Amino acid sequence: MAGPVLVSGGTGLVGGRLLPALRAGGREVRSLSRAGDAAGPRFGWDGVHPPEAALRGSEAIVHLAGEPVFGGPPTAARRARIRESRVASTRAFVDAIAALPAGDRPQTFVCASAVGYYGDRGEEILAEEAAPGEGFLAEVCVAWEAEARRAEALGVAVARLRIGIVLAREGGALAAMARPFRLGLGGRLGHGRQWFPWIHADDLVSLVLACLEGRLTGAVNATAPGPVRNAELTRALGSVLRRPTLLPVPAFALRAGLGELAGELLGSRRVVPAAAEAAGVAFRHPDLAGALAAELRG
Fold this sequence. Notes:
The protein is built from eleven helices and 13 strands. Helix 1 (about 15-25) packs across helix 6 (about 200-210), helix 3 (about 75-100) packs parallel to helix 4 and helix 7 packs parallel to helix 11 (about 290-295). The two termini are about 35 Å apart. The longest helix is centred in the first third of the chain and has 24 residues, at about 75-100. Strand 1, helix 1 and strand 2 (about 30-35) form a beta-alpha-beta unit. It has a seven-stranded parallel sheet with strand order 3-2-1-4-5-7-11, with helices on both faces. It has a domain at about 5-170 and about 200-225 and about 270-285: NAD(P)-binding Rossmann-like Domain (Rossmann fold). The protein is an alpha/beta fold.
């Protein structure tokens, strides 16, 4: 049986599905939690510095934790927390791995990143070899991934998951989008022509498992095979919820409320999962309408 998997963000949107999947596959799971303690499979941490006891003996690490991007007003303090929770925590993980004796180091480090890596790219098709873009989140993602890649020099296989908008009934972006639609207030964002990379939560879990199995390493676009435009997302969400989609959200209103982060909703990222498809990873929910129905009607 394979060794323990240490997961940060295990109580989050993705971790809530990943941990049961790991256990169902016979893996021992260790999780990091701010509410945890130093005993048993759950270890307490401060959100940045993982305890040495949690890493020692872990065969793999899955680092998912991070400050929500749309969790509040885009103040300087929040922007700093967004960066700190990703870049500094990943640096701390790799430093902690380096401090372990070589025989005690994990074999695999799976680190979350985001499609924000690519910035606003219009109609360009973005496979994993595409260059990074510009903007706050692109800069955060570049620094985030650079810290993760430091583990490669320690003999650790590193996978960097550039995650799209995750569709899950438990919360996150889907819950935030569905709320106004249920009230009959849904509509496209801006002109609606921007590409919207998404992934069903269960397919994201499958990609993490593929990384742990050694089927995927390096940069991995964690998105569904069919990116859609925002207007198509709007129609599909309205159809699944049986609600009208007549009230577009003006770009200026998003910028007024979100500042630079509005670009994450108005920007266009035509991201494709080339690495996953080349590795033969099967997507259970490749179709947007089916993915939305599975979460909102299931």
